[in-house]
Amino acid sequence: MSVSKSRKKVTVPGILAMKSRGEKIVSLTAYDHLMAQSLDEAGIDIILVGDSAGMVIAGFESTLPVTMEMMLYHVAAVRRGTKRALLVADMPFLSYQTGWQEAVKNAGRFLQESGAEAIKLEGGSALAETISRLTGLGIPVMGHLGLTPQSINKFGSYRLVGIQKGEEKTLLEDARQLEEAGAFCIVLEKVPADLAGEITSRIKIPTIGIGAGMNCDGQVLVSHDMLGLFEKFQPKFVRRYAEIAAQMRTAFKQFSKDVKSGQFPAADESY
């Protein structure tokens, strides 16, 4: 089915209903007001304020240095540009792993201070109690399985997950437990397409794939990747829909040339 162009507000129950009627879910990241406004007007279903901001905005080598204060700032900026899409905030490293009480406090800050409508956290069955506590208090939770970037030091690289001994069974069980704990959907990152499809068929909540093939209930990409803004590396699963970084460099060079040659500003650009 095609992406809905309705201006009706996207909600957590609405995302669950999309799976039941076979409608694909579309998600992209945003970190600022203008990007959020463009995504919202384009009809994107879920805007994710990812901790990927640490890499594409702040220039960190990983997502690990991202703090709560950084994320609260970005989520608040995105909130001001979002009217229709469901706004989900990524919980940064150590904002939820230290216990459910700390997770509740920090997740609550996202909803109360920044206007998020749901939070996302990385991890499997070990976080089932935390997810249950959060959802029990009315805080919607998006799960994240497969390659979990906050665990980069454990994995050693941004590798495919689900191909080593025991990983397939673990992912299937983790997905089941996240659903049982109350998560409303699960991001599957860098998981073999067949395995992602099996997980998708076994659970009633939607799966959102990123490098997990076509069988997921929806797809998410980092906007800066698909726009060609982030050029440091290009994962196999990223389709570039534009080459904006190259266009920006061309524009900047032309501006510099025009200023140095005296062609800017012209008479009609002056008061």
Task: Tell me about this structure.
It is a single chain. This protein has 271 residues and is an alpha/beta fold. It has two domains: 12-240, Phosphoenolpyruvate-binding domains (TIM Barrel), CATH 3.20.20; 245-271, no CATH class. It has eleven helices and eight strands. The protein has helices spanning 12-20, 33-41, 53-56, 68-79, 100-114, 128-136, 152-155, 167-181, 193-202, 223-226, 244-261; strands at 25-29, 46-49, 86-90, 118-120, 141-146, 185-189, 207-210, 218-221. An eight-stranded parallel β-barrel has the order 1-2-3-4-5-6-7-8, surrounded by seven helices. Helix 9 links the parallel strand 6 (185-189) and strand 7 (207-210). The longest helix is centred in the C-terminal third of the chain and has 18 residues, at 244-261. The chain starts with 11 loop residues before the first helix and ends in a 10-residue tail after the last helix. The mean pLDDT is 95.
Number of strands: 8
Ends distance = 52 Å
> Based on helices, strands and strand pairing, what is the structural class?
alpha/beta
**CATH fold label of the largest domain:** TIM Barrel
Feature tags:
271 residues; alpha/beta; TIM Barrel; 2 domains; eight-stranded parallel β-barrel; 11 helices; 8 strands; globular
Could you write a compact summary of the structure shown?
With 271 residues, the chain is of the alpha/beta class. Helix content is 40%, strand content 13%. The chain has an eight-stranded parallel beta barrel, surrounded by seven helices.
